[in-house]
Structure prediction request, 104 residues.
Amino acid sequence: MNQLTELTADIREKLPRLTTVQEYMMNDGSKMKFGEDYPVVITDIMEYLGIKSVEFAFTHNGFYAYDDELEVWGDFIPIELHSPFLKDQSPELITFLHGLIKNY
Prediction:
């Protein structure tokens, strides 16, 4: 399972509102799943991590966001704001978030 798939599954498990998929037993004994998986967006990750609010700051070095509960130091990894969907984010961000959630 790749990191994006694993990350998405972990988030959907904790945030059941992201799926309406349910398994049903058919007359012949087989099982089928029906429903829809909604896309995971950046704010879902924040909810998963328990981040309730984020403060933004503009500085001469750029634009930063942080919150009081989670401080992350290291390389700057941009979030693609043109699309809120996790699947559209950079591989670097997916790897970072995957590691963050696995150690959370």
